[in-house]
Amino acid sequence: MSDDDTEDVGDVGDVDSMDDVQLRDVTEAHLEVFLAYEHDPEAVRRSRFTPRPREAFMTHWKERVLGDDTSLVLTVTVDGDPAGNLVAWWEGDRRFIGYWLGRPYWARGIGSRALGLFLRREKTRPLYADPFHGNTASVRLLEKHGFRRTGTVRHGEDEHIMLVLDDA
């Protein structure tokens, strides 16, 4: 890990050799990109997450995400450009993980490389995730990294799969 809080994976695994995947601290400029990614219609359909209006989005990120010193929050960059984010936070006595990648970065192995890097830094176990059941790519990504299905939960009208990454 370098002094600028980046981790370079370069030409590794299933990432295209042209892709330089890194994790960096979130900057205010990244929030504008994250907002655009959150409003992508296909991402909304897959995640079943209702995008926030700009002001609500910015307030949420600045106060609840970046303002929570117990959260681990990082920007995923590809070739220096913000590709998305990874976040771990406490919900009661459970530590959850969530992520969002922009559509240009889907199906390129970037999510897998970024999640692998993130899990090296986020040491809390068990670690939980609850993607929408229809987001099969997200479920597969988590399972590839050792998360196992433990049941389902409901968020409003939608069923989500509860996954957990244990110590072993």
Describe the protein in words.
With 168 residues, the chain is of the alpha+beta class. It is built from five helices and eight strands. An eight-stranded mixed sheet has the order 1-2-3-4-5-6-8-7, sandwiched between helices. A hairpin with a 2-residue loop joins strand 7 and strand 8. The chain starts with 6 loop residues before the first strand and ends with a strand.
Q: What characteristics describe this protein?
A:
168 residues, 30% helix, alpha+beta, 8-stranded mixed beta sheet
Helices and strands, with pairings:
Elements lengths: L6 E2 L12 E4 L3 H11 L2 H7 L6 H12 L6 E7 L2 E11 L2 E8 L8 H12 L5 E3 L6 H9 L3 E8 L2 E8 L3
Parallel strand pairs: 5-6
Antiparallel strand pairs: 1-2, 2-3, 3-4, 4-5, 6-8, 7-8
Brief rundown of the structure:
With 168 residues, the chain is of the alpha+beta class. It is 30% helix and 30% strand.
Report the β-strand fraction as a percent range. 25-35%
Structural class: alpha+beta
Count of distinct strands: 8
**Rounded Rg:** 15 Å
Helix-strand pattern: EEHHHEEEHEHEE
- Kindly report the average pLDDT value: 89
Label the overall shape. globular
**SS element count, helices:** 5
Q: Can you tell me the residue ranges where pLDDT is under 50 for at least 5 consecutive residues? A: 1-18
Q: How does the major sheet shape up?
A: 8 strands, mixed
Helix content: 25-40%
Distance between the termini: 25 Å
For the biggest β-sheet, the strand order reads 1-2-3-4-5-6-8-7
